[in-house]
Amino acid sequence: MRIIMKFGGTSVADADRIRHVVSIIKAERARHQVVPVVSALDGVTEMLLDVADAAAKGDELAVETLLTQIRDKHLACAYALGAHDQVRPLIERLETLVHGVLALEELTPRSTDAIVAFGERLSCAMVAHTLGGVAMDGREAGIVTDDHFTEADPLMDLSMFQVREALTPLLDGNKPMVVTGFVAANQHGVTSTLGRGGSDYTATILGAALKADEIWIYSDVDGLMSADPRIVSAACLLSHLTFAEAVEMGKFGAKSMHPRALEPAAAHRVPVRMRSTFKPDHPGTLISESSGPAGPGGAGSVVRSVPMLKNLVMLTIGGASMVGRPGSAAEIFGALATQRVNVHMICQSVSEAGISLVINQNQADKARAALDGALRSRHLERTVELVGGVCVVAAVGAGMKGTPGVAAKIFSAIANAKVNVIAIAQGSSELSISIVVRAEDGPKAVAAIHDAFALSA
Amino acid sequence: MRIVLLGFGTVGQALARMLREQRETLAARLGTPPRLVAVTDSRGSAIDPHGLNEAALLAAKAEGRGLASLPGIGGSASSLRVVLSTPADVVVETTPSNLAMPRPALDHLLGAMRTGKHVVSVNKAPLAVAMPALLEAARHNRIGLAYSGTVGAATPFLHAAGRLAVGDRIVKVRAILNGTTNFILHRMFETDEPFNAALAEAVRLGYAETDPSNDIDGIDTAMKLVIMANHAARSSGRPAGVAYRDVRVGGIRGLAIQRVREAKAAGKAIKLIATIDEAGVRVGPEEVDVTSPLNTPRNVNACTFSMAQAGEVTLVGRGAGGAETATAIVRDIIEVTTGARVS
What we know:
The structure holds two protein chains of two kinds. By secondary structure, chain A is of the alpha/beta class. Chain A is built from 14 helices and 17 strands. In chain A, the strands form three sheets. An eight-stranded mixed beta sheet of chain A has the order 3-5-2-1-8-10-11-9, sandwiched between helices. A six-stranded antiparallel beta sheet of chain A has the order 13-14-12-15-17-16. A three-stranded mixed beta sheet of chain A has the order 4-6-7. Chain B has a seven-stranded mixed beta sheet with strand order 4-3-2-1-5-6-7, with helices on both faces. In chain B, α5 packs parallel to α6 (124-141), α6 packs parallel to α11 and α8 packs across α9. The longest helix of chain B has 18 residues, at 124-141. Chain B is built from 13 helices and 13 strands. Chain B has helices at residues 10-21, 23-30, 54-62, 79-85, 103-114, 124-141, 157-167, 179-191, 195-204, 213-216, 219-235, 257-265, 322-337; strands at 2-6, 35-41, 44-47, 74-75, 90-93, 118-121, 145-146, 170-176, 248-249, 268-277, 280-289, 300-307, 311-318.
């Protein structure tokens, strides 16, 4: 088989873990053609963003402190692995770049990418050295993006072609390759990064281009669960999910994949397996076009997972002037978009007298100010009401489509748990139903729905 | 209109001649007189931002000298260097197609696009291996990419495919897209000569190269077919999705004269036919009725489009030649620089 293996930051956190990852790669390389993709060492991307930020502000002391931390962290790891000759020149180049930003006190998205990319370059150099292989960055692997630095979009057809051209001859070679996740370049060869979805996105682009049999995403959890095990102790591991279900769940937490990263895999029908570095023999969760065998959380289940999104607020914009007046919604969302407020959920009743939105708590003030400003300038009689301390509980499952009674089952379960429903949203795709409840009621609602659909292992 | 010309063989020289002889007419059509600001051949290049004298270039070639030898303007800069560093409006790629090594030409096209120059290619190989990638690069850089000379030279097979796909659905394409093989097959049919003798005659007349593999093994036809399939898909708004590796490729190498005779006795002729239909994309020798419009003489190409509603449409014309291909290039230059662009 041909396998893309992507290792996240926690999987390559230190020298011991890198040795462990290399042993996994070697074992799989004995049976399969593999292309390993690595993230930066755990926490390093944040440190690099911080040092870039400090340099832009001219904060010399913070810059030197952070650079020392970054240097020490990597050199400690590199000495343990005997990779210091590979790592030291990279650290020196990084320091030169950061000092350049410090001297100018100016940071552009382009220079941010040049700095942040060193996280993956450094980890890749260490993994490749330990494996006895070649380190390649995303540019060398053929991934080309547009010029939206820090959030670059791949030129997908060109990238697919170039990845095939660059990597296919190496697949059967004696020397294994290791590719940096997250890092790419624009068509002029200037370093860019893929933003949301990051290294997972790199893995799925490579998988789609090389027509891999599977893409394995390694992290520190066994796979995707039917619910957060800290809320529902009997939550079961989901052995199979469809791409559509995984996209729906992508929203709800760091352990699932960003929907953007799933796109190339879904478009080219390459299954993605979420698995744990610490249990390399555990099959994990397979995301593919099939819903897999029956069982708790399996194919027979209408609802397969009950994720929860926390730290949210609900904004309700009301006023009789909105009724029957086209463009009301456009005004509201336009105002929020200009302030880059991300809207999680939207509800409006047929009466049109109010629109409710769910957004992150830390964007609440910004959103409220944007709406007040926009509505005041138009002299519109509107009220903006904010309800804090809410969460969204969702029931996700492709089996809900066309199955009558799902909503009834969910709401009677919640009612029995004595949880009050504040708002509801369901898209016509029928892949999920989202419910807004008070934050303190969230876990109760999750447990009740999980129980009602018999998802416990 | 500043033009960079890559490759100075038969086609490149024909283009230079055409630019020299028809400068006034072309200036009227383009809105500005065309001038060659750089020309490259296999040994080097000649560059003059004010415009090169085509007569001097042609004279150097006629004397068997490379462009690098031209005093004051000749140099050793590679084609890629010239593409990236010469300010120009259009880059015309006419270097020989090499399916096994499409990279140099592909780099010329991508390099031109990322430095904001329109591209006209009569080189088939980069399009045959990476058409979706090239179309994406053209869209991304908002520049024109035209390649009508890759298939049928001056005979507008691609334009026809594109236009027909807009208003109706093309259910099947059957075409003769390689003049050399058609010349050989026609000669075998007419004179009853065996394959090798007919091939030797084609080489003698300059229709076939000394290594005729690209033609007689069906490779040239298959490259053209891939370009046509993707072009038609693109014109009808579907994703370009046929790759060279998807084509079942057969040729006519060593075709037995006996097969030609048997076909003839049954009122048929054997032709190297390129087909696109629901069964896939393929190239191979097939029998056609002697009364079929696909039974073309000598090196004449033909293409029959079967439409879902409108029945059959057949286009017949010369498919190669310096002047014919240069005509296609001029047509493409006008198209890309006057706004009829990829995006």
